[in-house]
Write a structure and sequence with these properties.
The protein is globular. It contains 13 helices and five strands. A hairpin with a 5-residue loop joins strand 4 and strand 5. It has three domains: 60 residues, no CATH class; 76 residues, no CATH class; 154 residues, no CATH class. It is mainly alpha-helical and 309 residues long. The longest helix is centred in the middle third of the chain and has 19 residues. 55% of the residues lie in helices and 6% in strands. Its main location: plastid. Belongs to the SLC13A/DASS transporter (TC 2.A.47) family. DIT1 subfamily. It is a multi-pass membrane protein. Keywords: Membrane, Plastid, Plastid inner membrane, Transmembrane, Transmembrane helix.
Amino acid sequence: APLGGRSRLARERPIRTRSGAFRHDDTGKNQSFGGTFASERELGCKPGAGVQPRAAATADGNGSEIAAPQLTPVKLVPFLVSIAFGLVVRFAIPVPAGVTPEGWQLLAIFVSTVAGLVIGPLPVGAWAFAGVTTAVATKTLTFKAAFSAFSLDVIWLVVNAFFLAKGFVKSGLGDRVATYFVKMFGKSSLGLSYGLTVSEGILSPSMPSSTARCGGIYLPIIVSLAKQAGSLPGKTANKLGAFLAQAQLQTTAHLSSISLTGAAQNTLGLVLAANLGYPVANPWITWFKAGIVAGPPGPAPPPATRVRI
């Protein structure tokens, strides 16, 4: 090869990857020998310089590129509004008789925290942690008192419920169950609605998070079905999308109450009852006996009634 140039071998040589080999030419195109490949340029390096990873991205177990995490900036206006709510309670409203200054200050922090959870200056977890930190920093609560709830079994039970529900979403098991019943019942819009209802009835006892079921499984399916029917937010929403969304809302509200593990708040309610002196013997069966009376009949009338109207 000429001095300073690259030989044909340097310009076009096989590079071994997990899925096979490819060749790179001067145009940056691939001449693959099978499998899924990417050029050296696509891998973030100069042609002929070897494969070098990009610093701004990582890869998962399948070799897919994952974007680097981004920090969420504080939304200034919601932040100031949330703080203002707490300051008004703390300084503008007199402390009622019988309430300690620390108790009133804790109420102000609580009001500010709830306001922030609603209008969202930060993600929920970050804002909630900021509220706890404020209570400790102002000596409204001791460190032990502020974090004592993290040692309660019910808190970790709720956390585990979200982990389990996330597993259903990430593995695609919930999607497969839901789409199977859509295939069975989906001859009409009413059939689609009842197909989703039956699938949630099967999933709800083993997926103890109504939020994860709705947002992670059923909402994407409903959006996909609505788009295929030409139903989009706005003028065409009532063709199918609004009908399925309202029907699924009623379904989740009723079926979450049938079993103890149908929603995270069910187990929390049971623990609160025990703390008040009303423990429930054999809780799963007892809850099911009460929930089976009102749960299953609830989702049936709304879809049929709406179709008739």
